[in-house]
Specification:
18 strands, Jelly Rolls, mainly beta, seven-stranded antiparallel sheet
Length: 259
C-alpha cells in the first residue's frame, strides 16, 4: 500500500524540506500523478531555483517576505509573520518557466504544482485581493483563504487554498470523497500540508480518510499528507488539488479544497 503520510523531515530532498509529486521530486508516491508540493526554509539572502517544466506553480510564503523571478521579471511577495497572521501575497508562475525564489531576511516558502502543457499568464495575487471565506458553523467552522480557487485564479489543473482551523474543530465537514468521475463526484488528488501553532503543550491532529487510503495521527509541527480529511488543534493547512478535469469546468462538489 502506498504511504500517504509524510511527517516533517521524511519527504526532504536537497535544499527542500518537502518535495513530493513535482517534476524533479525523487520520492515517488505510488499512483500519484496530478499534484505536487515543495517547501523550503531559506536563510537570509538565500535562494532556491525551479527549472522550467511542464507544470503550473503557485508560490506561497509561509513566513517571511520573498522575491520571485520568472523569466527575468521580479515579483515581490510581502509575506507574513506566520501562517496564522492572515493571507499572504502569492504568485502563480504559469507553465514552462524557470523560477527563482529568494529572501533578504529569510523565511519559509511553499510551492504547489500540477503537471500541464497549457499556458496561463504569470499573476500576482496580493493578500488584499485574496477572498477570505468563513466556512461551516460550530465545531465545523474554519477560515479559508481562496487565493488559488477558480473564482480568484485562472489556472489549468489545480485548485489551491489555505485553511485555518480552531482547536478541536473539523476542517473538512461534511464527510465526502472525490475518487470517481460521476454525477455528484469529481476525481481529484489532494496534498495537505499541516502546521500547528507552536505551543509548550504537545499538539495532536487526526486525519480520517476513505477506505482506499490510510489514517494518520501526528504530533509534528508541520508536514504533508497525500490523503484527505483533517481534524486538528489550532491548525493551518493548505492543499494543492488537481485531477484530469480542468478546475474551470463544472465540478460536483465545493468541498474539494477544504482540509
Amino acid at each position: 500500500m502506498a504511504n500517504w503520510v509524510y511527517p516533517l523531515g521524511t519527504a526532504a530532498h536537497g535544499t527542500w524540506d518537502v518535495s513530493l509529486g513535482t517534476s524533479d521530486s525523487t520520492l515517488e508516491v505510488t499512483g500519484w500523478a496530478h499534484t505536487g508540493l515543495k517547501v523550503a526554509t531559506l536563510a537570509s539572502a538565500a535562494a532556491v531555483e525551479l527549472p522550467a517544466a511542464d507544470e503550473e506553480r503557485i508560490v506561497v510564503p509561509l513566513n517571511g517576505a520573498f522575491t520571485v523571478s520568472v523569466e527575468g521579471e521580479e515579483y515581490r511577495l510581502a509575506g507574513r509573520d506566520s501562517v496564522f497572521s492572515g493571507p499572504s501575497d502569492v504568485l502563480y508562475t504559469g507553465t514552462g518557466k524557470a523560477v527563482t525564489i529568494s529572501s533578504s531576511d529569510g523565511g519559509r516558502v511553499a510551492v504547489a504544482t500540477a503537471p500541464t502543457k497549457s499556458s496561463y499568464p504569470t499573476r500576482l495575487i496580493t493578500a488584499a485581493e485574496t477572498p477570505v471565506e468563513l466556512r461551516g458553523a460550530g465545531n465545523c467552522s474554519r477560515q479559508v483563504h481562496n487565493f488559488g480557487t477558480p473564482a480568484a485564479l485562472e489556472a489549468d489543473r489545480f485548485i489551491v487554498c489555505e485553511v485555518l482551523t480552531p482547536a478541536g474543530n473539523w476542517s473538512s465537514y461534511p464527510p465526502h470523497k472525490h475518487d470517481e468521475e460521476k454525477d455528484g463526484e469529481t476525481s481529484l488528488e489532494e496534498i495537505y500540508y499541516f502546521e500547528t501553532r507552536v505551543s509548550p503543550v504537545r499538539r495532536r491532529g487526526r486525519e480520517r480518510t476513505t477506505p482506499s487510503a490510510t489514517s494518520a495521527s501526528t504530533p509534528r509541527t508541520s508536514g504533508p499528507s497525500t490523503s484527505p480529511r483533517k481534524c486538528g488543534p489550532v491548525t493551518s493547512s493548505w492543499c494543492p488539488t488537481a485531477g484530469t478535469v480542468p478546475p474551470w469546468q463544472p465540478r460536483a462538489t465545493t468541498c474539494t479544497t477544504s482540509t
